[in-house]
Amino acid sequence: MQKNNTRRLTESAIMVALAAVLAMVKVWEMPLGGSVTAACMAPIIFIALRYGAKWGLLTGLVFAVIQMIEGFWAPPVRTLLWFFLVVMLDYVLPFGLLGLAPIVARRFKNAVVGAGVATVAVCVIRFLCHFLSGIIIWHTGDPAVPDWVWSLTYNGTFMIPETIINALAVAALVKFVKLPKANG
C-alpha cells in the first residue's frame, strides 16, 4: 500500500512539473491572459484518468496554485469578493476541475476515445469558467460589444486550439500507456 501511494504521489508531482513546463511553451499568448500551450493540461488529465477523479481534482488544484504563482495577473478589482472571483474563475475552478475527466472517460468502452472526449469535456468546463470571468470581471465596458460576445470571442480564441492540442495529446498518451481501472 505504501509503495502505491509513493508511486502515485511521485508520478503526480512529475506530471504537475511537466504541466508547468509545458505551460511555459506557448504557441501564442493573449494580451489579458490565456494562451495556446504545448498541451499543458494533458499531464493533469492523464493523472486524473490514471488515478481517478478525487486524485485528479487534487492534482488539478496543485497545478492551479502553480499557475497562479507563475503568472497571476488580476485586474484592478473593487472588492475582496471580486478578487476571490478572479482566483476562482481564472485559476482554481478551471484547472482544478480538469480532474473530472475520468467521470466522462469511463462511459466509453474505447479508452482512447473516452480520453479524448473527456479532455474536450473538461476543457469546455475550463472555457465556461473563463467565459464567466470575462463577463463578470474582465468586461470591456464597451456598449457596442456585449460582454458575453467579447468573452466568448476572447476565450474561444485560445481555448479552441488548446482543447484540440490537449485532446490529441491525452488520446495519444492513453493509446500508448495502459491505464488501470480508475475508481473515481
Task: Output the keywords.
184 residues; mainly alpha; two-stranded antiparallel ribbon; 7 helices; 4% strand
Describe the structure.
- This protein has 184 residues and is mainly alpha-helical.
- The protein is built from seven helices and two strands.
- The protein has helices at residues 2-24, 42-51, 53-71, 80-96, 101-105, 111-136, 147-176, and strands at 26-29, 35-37.
- It has a two-stranded antiparallel ribbon with strand order 1-2.
- A hairpin with a 5-residue loop joins strand 1 and strand 2 (35-37).
- The radius of gyration is 17 Å and the shape is globular.
- It starts with a helix and ends in an 8-residue tail after the last helix.
Tell me the distance between the termini: 18 Å
Largest sheet: 2 strands, antiparallel
User: What's the helix count?
Assistant: 7
Mean pLDDT: 91
> How large, in whole angstroms, is the Cα Rg?
17 Å
Strand content: under 5%
- The level of helicity is over 70%
SSE order: HEEHHHHHH
Are there runs of 5+ residues with pLDDT below 50, and where?
Answer: none
Structural class comes to mainly alpha
* Dominant shape: globular
Order of strands across the biggest sheet?
1-2
In total, how many beta strands? Answer: 2
